[in-house]
């Protein structure tokens, strides 16, 4: 609620009466104390919200609220009741919330109760009394952080209950059998119930949407699911003691998210997991005794043509996997967008990974035995392979050359997408690609007109980072200025590295320099500058990716010498269309690189070095290189091995 609306509402209530007992709502400590100590024969109060900024002590007798027959909401925080004993509440009360109250459940008069919400977090209650059975309209129970609670209430007494939160009830041992059959229950949160060891053998709660058993460290057996649970969406099983899941897990037909982080006793997964056709996120991280991911062929269902048809995110980091053959089958995970295989013992990735055309991120960090990354899919944006010291050097890695060239040739396509993520590559050993222009000082600057700046699609940044003697997180900051004013400064970080690594990232101009308003700037040119700041950066370089430059712009660049044309990597579009432009054959990338090298060598014989950009006493010295243009022509089309049409890209002066 906006502060002004709240103040307006308070003012309206204050105008109701000078007598607090005749107002409908109370929130001031002194008003509440006055009301509780007065004779309330005709009390108009409907809501009390008492939340003092500092802990207050107050004496509330057992019958203080019984005459408030209109009371509907009672919320008390940061208040200690000096009276030791239960208090009685009116049956018309809808919501009761008192954090840190004494070890009792409030009592009500005989007759039907209308309470819908009971929140008693951090209370010292040990059991829920039998009187609880009278709360037929109760929908929400929150007893989180009640560390003395040892037993769960019988939910059959609350047929309309939708949410039960017992977070961090550390002495709770047994979950009542009634949770297995409750037809209305939607959310059951038992996270942090570290002594919970008794749970129903079956789960039939047909409206259950979410079950959280995270850090129930003594929970050893997941229940069977004999019937389909159509509404079940999220299952959190992090840090529990199960050894496996039942085959009946397939009956969670609507499951979208399943988390099995740090289940150290987990040995296997049922092949029926492939039948979870709505599962989107599957995290099985740090399950160190997992012997492998099940194979699709073992699911033995001839009617199922696609396994895990909607899976987007698969995380198997830290599971001691030695092979990932299950990824070879393209009839599984057809929509997979992110694969995390970090900290495993894999030696190679399946060759079919280059045909996963939805994959945008591959993380194989600290796979120390990984020796090969095959051709990568055309959709891939991010490749994280830090700590993979068994990989060949980046210069000998064809997929690396293809991956880098892909962002250069598809930069304009992705610049049209405002939510498109940056391209990122992290690989062992710090070999800077030849197409990157090395910055020999810590900062650079250049001038650009509005027409030229509007041609910029992005910047390809390359940073060589070394190991940190302090063994802390590797990080560096890219500091940018526009006409001397500091702009957004993206910060990049990664886990500790034991050797030199190369970090490549493609970023849009708006991420670096923000929204540049040339109309508010005197003159025709704006000064842009960049600086990489970090103790772990050994060297860095960059290249500006831009649209095709018209002849007039090229002449202007030659005349004013405010920016070295070698900084600009031009992308030329022809009528072949954007979709065709993004198709680059893996096998042709080495040809393209070799051609570029030949052209650069020839150009180096005739062109002189130039110096650009100053910032204070710093200068950036760049070798004047070739301006490369990616030309798409009809004569350069060729056929993929699998029948698709690709394009060979020629780099022309």
Largest sheet: 24 strands, mixed
Tell me the β content: 15-25%
Q: Helicity range of the residues?
A: 10-25%
Instruction: Tell me the distance between the termini.
Output: 61 Å
CA-based gyration radius: 33 Å
Q: In one word, what is the shape?
A: globular
Q: Based on helices, strands and strand pairing, what is the structural class?
A: alpha/beta
The residue-averaged pLDDT reads 79
Unreliable residue runs: 574-653
- Number of helices in the DSSP assignment: 8
Per DSSP E runs of 2 or more residues, the count of β-strands stands at 37
Could you list some keywords that capture this structure?
single chain; 653 residues; alpha/beta; 24-stranded mixed sheet; five-stranded antiparallel sheet; 8 helices; 37 strands; 12% helix; disordered C terminus
How do you describe this structure in short?
The chain is an alpha/beta fold and 653 residues long. Helix content is 12%, strand content 24%.
